[in-house]
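We give the entry.
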Amino acid sequence: MDILSKEIAGNPDDQGLYLRRALAWADSGEPAKAVEDVEYAAKLGDPLQATLVRGILLFRQQALSAAKACFDDYLQRYPEHTGALSYRARLLNDTGDKGAALADYQHLIQLQPEQDPGIYVATAQLLASTRPDEGTQAALALLDQRIDAVGAIPQLQRQAISLEKQRGDYAAALQRLSTLDGRIRATPEWHVEAAELLLASNDSGQARAHLLVAQEQLQQLRATPARAKTGARTQQLLEQIDGGT
């Protein structure tokens, strides 16, 4: 904040500095000062630049209708601005306008494929939920396209695993699970997840082997609430297997 204020003192007509400071004020819990900077910035240059930041402030305050109007105005002139598209896509998703949110997310990825994994996950979720027939396949294709480019990032592969499970393809889900980082595959949680998929595929023998590995690992690790939960699930699944034999 001090750095921006000093820069503004030396460049009092720089609209961008005021808008940057407005966002910094908002991050610091000073919404009134943020609005003051936005309104002043609107007089210094392109008013739409202030409109975009005003929309971001309104979005953070959950004034979603007013925020959407700001993003709409901005994107009408600058339809390929990825920042505005990202904010509007999130807003539309939050307000239940899934089709419009999907269109914005897809446009965003088309413009800039190097998006955060969260953008791909949100887009895949919307594809699967808004297009009941071919949506899941399209969602998996989108995730795989990004995985092929950057590797099996857990956030992307986890979403793909979830979609495979939803459509009942447990073998595909298990194959994807096996591609996760070796540090993840070395955890008891991974072995329990693998066991669950194997059980869903009616392979109780392999499932039991994974559960025994998880059980042994948990005995050697420091007890935590999360590990206690994993241990309970391990025991439950072993009893389920033993009860079915």
